Amino acid sequence: MHGMLQRLQRRAERRLPALTRYRRPERLPIELHRRRIYIVPTGFGIGFSVLLLVMLVGSLNYANNAALLLTCLLGAASAASMLVAFRSLDGLRLSHIRAGHAVAGQPIELILALDSSRPRDAIRLDLGSTSHAFALDGHTTTHARLALATTDRGWQPLPRLRLWSTWPLGMFRAWSWLHPDQAVLVWPRPEAAGPSPSAPAADARHMRLHRGDELASLRDYRAGDPQRHIAWKASARHDNLMVKDFEQPQSHPQWQLDWRQLRGMDNEARIARLARWLNEAQAQRCSYSLWLPGNEIGSGSGPLHYARCMNALAQLP
């Protein structure tokens, strides 16, 4: 029964212009109102209506006032449930959408911020085959999380979202469509294997100090230095205390990832290799720079620098 109702609903959306007027993308925020909320009886609601009809015919046929009163009360309750289902969506507001990060072929997480001026229960949000149930307390913003399937890198527009509820008795389904005018950026898929990038020879700009075991130099005493590191003989020849310094220069190579070095490869192969090199540099906590056509990103490291480089790769034509 449920599958048949779903097919009828999809067919009605194709046939009736009133049900498809919100297929076009809309700017955020999106607020639901009475002209865009639709209600149909569920399978349980249809069966209950048939039961009420049988009860009505029986009570009238046998002139049973108690049965007639019960039938009227149940009918009033079902009609009230239809109003409650409508009010569960009326005035609901989608304020903004945030997206996580994912490479092509992996689902990307969407975080939808919804708010309302009054409490609401048992609301469901559908995106393709995924669904998320939530409730609103009427005071704070509720965040619904959905997974969006991805296939290719670059900007991917958001599909239509269905917001629906069968609260409180499950007799009626109230639903509405949300089609935000927004896109998410999907990162490129790195290649599975290949050569590693060549790091330039270490120079003075790529050296940093590390603590070793051999004496490197003498320096002035600083508060907090251990007494065992004080060079007493050398301090006797100076006005200040001298401390043995065991810090020595250590090579800290910088990776220069350059689009121009990957000649003979098509654009997508270049992007996949650079994406893999970015992953390797991030895993090894190296400092790296990235040169792309029309975009040169200086040296850096860390999650923010990695995300900036991956975003630049994803937006290449």
From TrEMBL:
- The record lists the membrane-crossing segments as 37-60, 66-86
User: Mind listing the UniProt keywords for this protein, alphabetically?
Assistant: Membrane, Transmembrane, Transmembrane helix
Coiled-coil features, chain-numbered ranges: none
Look up keyword Transmembrane helix and say if it applies: yes
Please list the residue ranges annotated as the DUF58 domain.
218-251
Instruction: Read off the InterPro entries from this record.
Output: DUF58 (IPR002881)
Annotated Pfam families: DUF58
Q: Does the keyword Methyltransferase apply?
A: no
> Which superkingdom heads the taxonomic lineage of this protein's source?
Bacteria
Task: Please identify the protein, giving its name as recorded.
Answer: DUF58 domain-containing protein
Q: Which organism is it from?
A: Rhodanobacter ginsengisoli
What lineage does the source organism belong to? Answer: Bacteria, Pseudomonadati, Pseudomonadota, Gammaproteobacteria, Lysobacterales
